[in-house]
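Milestone M4 deliverable, item 7.
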Amino acid sequence: MNTTVARLTARGLFGRRRVLLLLAVPVLLLGIAVLTRNSNLDSLDLVHKVLGTLALGTLVPITGLVVGTGVIATEIEDGSIVYLLAKPLPRWKIVTTKLAVAVGSTWLLSAVPVYVAGLLLYGTGDRVALGYTVGALASGAAYSAVFLLLGVLTRHAVIAGLAYALIWESLIGSYVEGAQTLSVQQWGLSLTEAVAADGTVIAPVGLGTALWLLVIVGAGATAYASVKLAGLTLGSEE
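Output delivered:
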């Protein structure tokens, strides 16, 4: 990890108007938790709807999208990446440093609010809040890697990533049985089930399958992003 690249990446990620967009997600989640905590709904059903459907299904992938693409896509689009590529740094070190910033930011902006929202809605009982937090940590890391790769592959990373997050993760990956095995959200939910008390969380994907797929997707996306970035040359319009 290169500390200079990490510092510049974090400064660019949280600069200007993007920080307002990044803070909107945790504020929205915590606001919903505060407003619904005293509702008449069953508390376990409520925490599943807020943390499972809303947070893992929509807010965590959206945060991963904004952060994952934000650490590199903007530099490629405006051409400022050439200054970084001119440095004698291996491309894989640039990618892994930016990924580390993306993962840490996604965890801060999604997993921490998920835990706080879980405490507001259900307390520490049955390890449900902790389970959803672990699920958000795992899925947030995978989303960061996938969307960073997308930022390297295309200038339209945000649009493509938004379509993936809303159509695949929020709709198909949530409700189509065969597609759930290929959903990052469901992999995170599998870890949630493993941490929470027996019977409180049900995941359609087995824990072993989820862990392997998380590792394969995370490592594969990082390696491919390094290869593609190595293919960029100074003055490249890619």
